[in-house]
């Protein structure tokens, strides 16, 4: 069990911070991701900051080499492919004081018991929010311009669009939009920031955001029914929790006005895919869906071939050279830990019920 003094040393205590040191750190993630997560400048910063335990990276906890490293690890620097960090594993890591996740959510692998044992936790979810928000902004702009159905016509006919093609759209253009943001998550807040480049009114539904905070964000708070019924674009950024599953249900989809664009870069289970399908097949609504339920959709599902639906393979989050942002954030958090200062991106147990 971690003592109170140990737990507070890295959680915002007013005590004087110790001099920087090199915490004993074990990397736990899929080895094939190493170069993407830690490109050369980030790798150099990591090696300056920590005493990296051998083997340099592991993706399992059962081998003798892993067991030896775990016994001396003060920090687990984790990523995609990390096995469960549960009570049994924590019993084998008596020196462990921190888990720093160079990816998004920690809920997929980290047991809440870690918080009970005084372990401090950080996540790079804020860095992963950047490409998702950028993707969302692009989806909103291209969706509002009806790029996807009009590009399909252009590709098939090999000729310029006609006035009739434009007239068939419910509406077209980015000027004066009302955009409804569902969820002021890290990604939702980043989307709100990026939407300032548009001439748009932004509505927000988030039960955890009061009117004063909404004013600071520059959005109009509203209930979800009003948001879906009055927005030209509805973009979903809530976490997948028991309370949010199916939050965009058949009734709320029915409240959307003809021509509404639905963008989902969150999780497929937040939207009733089958209820949505009928409205997309009829052409009443448009959608950009980076996620669906199920994921992927079955072969032969109508959404694969609709001109007003743009499906992408869950790629809005960090990909390719974007992944290095996650490693850079995680290494900076490790440096803060080494200095004895609080994380900039902590994860608290109280947040687990309402984060992704």
TrEMBL record:
Coiled-coil positions = none
**Annotated segments matching region Disordered:** 1-23
Name a Pfam family for this protein.
Answer: 2-Hacid_dh
Q: Keywords for this entry? A: NAD, Oxidoreductase
Q: Does the keyword NAD apply?
A: yes
**InterPro entries recorded:** D-isomer_2-hydroxyacid_DH (IPR050223), D-isomer_2_OHA_DH_cat_dom (IPR006139), D-isomer_DH_CS (IPR029753), D-isomer_DH_NAD-bd (IPR006140), NAD(P)-bd_dom_sf (IPR036291)
Domain D-isomer specific 2-hydroxyacid dehydrogenase catalytic, chain residue ranges per copy: 59-347
What CDD domains does the record tag this protein with?
A: 2-Hacid_dh_8
Give start and end of each D-isomer specific 2-hydroxyacid dehydrogenase NAD-binding domain.
161-316
Say which family it is in: Belongs to the D-isomer specific 2-hydroxyacid dehydrogenase family.
Protein name per UniProt? Dehydrogenase
Q: Which organism is this entry from?
A: Streptomyces gelaticus
């Amino acid at each position: 069990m971690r003592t109170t003094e140990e737990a507070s040393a890295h959680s915002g205590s007013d005590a004087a911070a110790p001099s920087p040191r090199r915490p004993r750190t074990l990397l736990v993630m899929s080895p094939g991701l190493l170069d993407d997560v830690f490109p050369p400048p980030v790798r150099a910063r990591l090696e300056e900051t920590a005493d990296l335990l051998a083997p340099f990276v592991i993706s399992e906890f059962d081998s003798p080499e892993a067991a030896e490293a775990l016994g001396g690890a003060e920090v687990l620097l984790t990523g995609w492919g990390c096995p469960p960090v549960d009570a049994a594993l924590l019993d084998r890591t008596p020196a462990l004081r921190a888990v720093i996740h160079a990816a998004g959510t920690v809920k997929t692998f980290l047991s809440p018991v870690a918080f009970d044992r005084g372990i401090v936790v950080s996540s790079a979810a804020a860095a992963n929010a950047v490409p998702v928000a950028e993707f969302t902004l692009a989806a909103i702009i291209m969706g509002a311009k009806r790029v996807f159905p009009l590009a399909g016509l252009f590709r098939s006919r090999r000729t310029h669009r006609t006035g009739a093609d434009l007239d068939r759209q419910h509406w077209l253009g980015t000027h004066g939009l009302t955009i409804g943001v569902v969820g002021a998550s890290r990604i939702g807040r980043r989307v709100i920031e990026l939407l300032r480049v548009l001439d748009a009114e932004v509505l927000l539904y988030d039960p955890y955001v009061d009117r004063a905070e909404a004013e600071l964000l520059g959005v109009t708070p509203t209930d979800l029914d009003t948001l879906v019924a009055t927005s030209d674009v509805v973009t979903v950024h809530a976490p997948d929790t028991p309370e949010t599953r199916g939050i965009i249900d058949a009734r709320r989809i029915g409240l959307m006005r003809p021509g509404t664009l639905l963008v989902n870069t969150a999780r497929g289970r937040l939207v009733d895919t089958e209820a949505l399908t009928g409205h997309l097949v009829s052409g009443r609504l448009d959608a950009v869906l980076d996620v669906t339920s199920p994921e992927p959709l079955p072969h032969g599902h109508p959404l694969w071939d609709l001109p007003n639906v743009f499906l992408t393979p869950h790629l809005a989050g960090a990909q390719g050279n974007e992944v290095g942002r996650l490693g850079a954030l995680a290494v900076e958090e490790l440096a803060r830990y080494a200095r004895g200062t609080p994380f900039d991106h902590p994860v608290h147990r109280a947040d687990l019920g309402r984060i992704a």
